[in-house]
Amino acid sequence: MAVSLISSSHLMTTLIFSCITLLLFPTIIESQQTGITRHYQFDVQMANVTRLCQTKSILTVNGQFPGPQIVAREGDQVIIRVVNHVAHNITLHWHGVRQLRSGWADGPAYITQCPIQTGQSYVYNFTIVGQRGTLWWHAHISWLRATLYGPIIILPKLGVPYPFTKPYKEVPLIFGEWWKADTEVVIKQALQTGGGPNVSDAYTINGLPGPLYNCSAQDTFKLKVKPRKTYLMRLINSALNDELFFSIANHSLTIVEVDAVYVKPFKTNTLIIAPGQTTNVLLTTHSNYPNANFFMQARPYVSGQATFDNSTVTGILEYENPKSSSSSSFNKNLPLLRPNLPAINDTSFVTNFTKRLRSLANAQFPANVPQTVDQKFFFTVGLGLNPCTKNQKCQGPNGTRFAASINNVSFVMPSTALLQSHFSGKSRGVYASNFPIMPLIPFNYTGTPPNNTFVTNVTKVLVLPFNTSVELVMQDTSILGVESHPLHLHGFNFFVVGQGFGNYNPAKDPARFNLVDPVERNTIGVPPGGWVAIRFLADNPG
């Protein structure tokens, strides 16, 4: 299991966020496989794609962009043979899949496996246990996931209904980012200079930027709906670097699931979704033909000081006209209405929306929150600095290099996969198991930064006994400025039991923890200048 950074506007995806791998001592876990086996063939290959008046060659799976859907039911075994036909090393991560007893199939390069080299193949084999909803897959090496991504749709077991209105149709919407430049060149330049990577040129919905970008009116995602119907929209944020607001003009959305976990339904006109997160919403259309078309729009939420892609991706929601003989044409003469999205820095909206997310916590879908914990950890999350390499000009503050860190440790990627070295008993020289469980030198985390902001660059992991109940508090810092930091926990879901702004107070804040129906998910944003507390049971060896 690993805590890995999804993104932040500086180098959060550039300088791999101090990845804390928890190695659990293995024990037999009983799991019943009640479904069928589904086979997929993924050929990673290059394809020419034109966006924003420019054609470039991108990495794809089976020539598709975005990549193909994986559809399975809870209890199904999924076997995916991945063949690498490109010049880059490849791994694929099945984001949010618990991977119970199948850690080898999780996919992060040099953590659970060595990369698939050119001309080679790898078979990912896992079973969907106790999960249903929307997840996604993506490349997990360098920035290749800029174009290598696609949805994972997990249906309930046969005969088991949704705990909400049965939808008329289900539609995946995947938000992404598009660069005119080669993203591998972008990240290579950022790593060389130590500065922030160049921002994207557009956001996309299902690979399409929409009419607000140059040359893109023809590259617009359009969702055609009927009046008086309910649609299940499966939203996925596959963007590398940005949390996104999303709204549909003159329509409300009912949130019913996040990260493949059902939640208590609530209505909203706008939602926030961080990189790596998924959100299922119900869209109930108007009772009558509205004589209008409606923009579906997403734009970034920005909490830091770095540059960002300040643009808006747009799709169009259009109603089928019962009086029209054609069901495929878009009537450009109708009014086109736009939603009112929050300001790009509206942290108050993000906080209030996040607080509304609650688990169902009923007999069928319980919230098994650890009521007591065996171990508590306190991680500071933010940016620090590395000195510039001799005879090189760097673009960080005062000629330094930006470095992401947890507890002032910036992760150094090993050349041997951590799981392999642990399994073979040859971990000496690959990693150290003394990752700090709290900052070695406490300071005023959201106040005046310490004088020394340089980080330690090592490969360290945190080892846990099997079935340990864990409480982890992640604290943003003001070093180089506060900002939101989305992080993803591999191999586990967790419960978000508390969050707040300022410095976490271990004497007072736990009294406000929600241990009854906190939201359960696999990716969470650490609030800018604040903290978030999660609890989970370390019951998945790997």
Describe the protein's architecture and organization.
The protein is mainly beta. The chain contains 3 helices and 33 strands. The chain has a 6-stranded mixed beta sheet, with no helix packed on it. Strands 13, 15, 18, 20, 21 and 22 form a 6-stranded mixed beta sheet that branches. Strand 25 (409-411), helix 3 (418-423) and strand 26 (456-458) form a beta-alpha-beta unit. The longest helix has 11 residues, at 183-193.
Produce a short descriptive summary.
With 542 residues, the chain is mainly β. The protein contains three helices and 33 strands.
Task: Supply the key terms.
single chain; 542 residues; mainly beta; 33 strands; disordered N terminus
Separation of termini?
Answer: 6 Å
Report strand order across the widest sheet.
12-11-14-19-16-17
Question: Radius of gyration, Cα only, in angstroms?
Answer: 23 Å
Overall geometric form? globular
Q: How many H/I helices?
A: 3
Q: What is the β-strand count?
A: 33
Percent strand equals 35-45%
Largest sheet: 6 strands, mixed
Q: Helical content, roughly?
A: under 10%
Mean pLDDT: 92
Low-pLDDT sequence parts: 1-21, 25-33
Decide which structural class fits the backbone: mainly beta
